[in-house]
Design a protein that fits this description.
With 110 residues, this protein is an alpha+beta fold. Helix content is 37%, strand content 22%. A four-stranded mixed β-sheet has the order 2-1-3-4.
Length: 110
Amino acid sequence: MSASGASSHEPAGVHLRLYVTGRTPAALEAIAAARDLEHQLVKDFGAARIDVIDVLDDPGAALRDGIYATPTIMRLKPGPVRRIFGRLTAGLSLRDELQIDDVNSSAVAG
C-alpha cells in the first residue's frame, strides 16, 4: 500500500484511505466497515480502492494527511477530499457520510 500521490493512469472510481491505530477493536471494526463499503462501491462503480494505513507503522503518512485521530477515513477521489473520524461501523452509513453518491452523480451530470 503506497501513500504516495495518485498516478494519472489510475482508473476512474472511488479512492479512500483509512487510518487506524494498531489492531484495537475500534480499528478492526473500522477495517471491516471499510471493506464492506469497498465491495459495495466496486459493485456500483466498477472500481474502488481503500488503502488501510496503521499509524503505528507509518506515522509520517498520518502527518502528511493531517490525521490527528483514528480511526479516520478520507475520500480522496472523487474530490474534494472529505474526512470522517471516530467510530466507523457498518451501522453508520459511511457511503452517505462521505457523500460518494452525491459527488459521483455530479461528475456524471457535469
